[in-house]
Amino acid sequence: MLKIRRGVSPVIATVVLVAVAITISVAVAYWMGGVSSSYTKFEKLEINPAVCVYTGGAAPFWNVTFTVKSTGTQQVNIIHVYLNNFEVDGYSTSVLEEGKAVCSISSSGLLIKSGETDNIYILIAAPKADGTGGYKTLSSGTTVNIKLHSANGMDYTKMFELT
């Protein structure tokens, strides 16, 4: 009676084992991909060359426009702007005093989602008539360093020349 019972042939057993191994490895690969993607998010910001326009008149100033693009996998929140390592005097372009610089970013920051672009406007007032003011050394032809600081602690720098 025991001789009538037969086992699975070695070929069928090998095929079943290989199929189970492939199924388990695919499931583990999907699981690891999901786990690792939550740890590999990063922010990256590209700053395109600045467009700088000098506006003369009674209250002369430079209007500097930057186009920025978030190229990382995580959104970027710009919270501080520095010119030559000094923070701009205000985060609203509505009021500009002599010898000061203001930026178009709101007080809560500028949020740029991954893959999106945005413009940042910086107004730099010419020095006061008496030569004082925070940016008294700036003049046409001067190279200025801008630094954008994100909420995650990253700094993005770009140099431009005042025209």
Helices, strands, pairings?
Elements: H1 10-39, E1 45-47, E2 51-55, E3 61-70, E4 76-83, E5 86-87, E6 101-103, E7 110-112, E8 117-125, E9 143-150, E10 155-161
Antiparallel strand pairs: 1-3, 2-3, 3-8, 4-5, 4-7, 4-9, 6-8, 9-10
Question: Could you please describe the fold and organization of this structure?
Answer:
By secondary structure, this protein is of the alpha+beta class. The protein has 2 domains: 1-40; 45-161, Immunoglobulin-like. 18% of the residues lie in helices and 36% in strands. Strands 1, 2, 3, 6 and 8 form a 5-stranded antiparallel beta sheet that branches. The longest helix is centred in the N-terminal third of the chain and has 30 residues, at 10-39. The relative contact order is 0.19. The model has no long low-confidence stretch (mean pLDDT 86).
